[in-house]
What does this fold into?
Amino acid sequence: GAGVSQSPSNKVTEKGKDVELRCDPISGHTALYWYRQSLGQGLEFLIYFQGNSAPDKSGLPSDRFSAERTGGSVSTLTIQRTQQEDSAVYLCASSLESGGGYEQYFGPGTRLTVT
Amino acid sequence: GDSVTQMEGPVTLSEEAFLTINCTYTATGYPSLFWYVQYPGEGLQLLLKATKADDKGSNKGFEATYRKETTSFHLEKGSVQVSDSAVYFCALKTGGSNYKLTFGKGTLLTVNP
It folds into this structure.
C-alpha cells in the first residue's frame, strides 16, 4: 500500500517568505508527527496530532511555526517569515495509534532551503 | 529530559567486517528503544526495536540488546555488506510521552567492497 507522502520534495524560498509543507499519512493512521532534521540539531520532534487535535506542540521552535490537520488525514506545516535557520529537512510520520507499541512510518521529507 | 547519545561517525568498514555502533540513553521511566536506518535518498525506516530490559531486537542480521544496567542499546552486525551503507539513528520513547521519538544525532556508515 501507499506510504507516507510529502510535498514538495524540495523547496527553495527567500528569507521572509511564508511556506507550506504538506503531509499525506498512511490511510487509517490516526496519529501524525512532524520532525525536523538539521545538521546542527539532528532529528527533533516538532508536533504530534491525534486525529485533528494537537496534544503536544512543544517542539515548535517559535510562533512562526504552525500546523494543522484536517479530516484526520492531511496535515500542513506552515512557516511564516522564514529565516535561514529554518533550512532543514522536514519529516512527517504516521502511526495507526499513538501508543508506545505502534511503529511510526516516515515520509521521504521536504528539504527546505531559505536563501 | 530524555536524551540519546550515539557514537560519532563517520564509520568506514570493509565488506564482511564486524560492526558496532554504540548508543546510550538517559530517560525517565522505562523507555522503548529503537534503531532507525536512512539509506541514501530514502526516508527513515525502523530497523529493530526492544521494549523492555534484556530484550534483543533483530532484523536483517543486525542485533541490539536493551541493557538497563548500562542504559545502552548498541547496534551490532557480524558481517556488513556494501548495501548496509546508510545513516543509523538510535531513538527512544518513554511512557510519559509514548508518542514522541527522541533521536541520537545519527552515525554515517560506509562499507567499501
Observations:
- Residues 7 and 39 of chain A are 21 Å apart (CA to CA).
- Chain A has a mean pLDDT of 93.
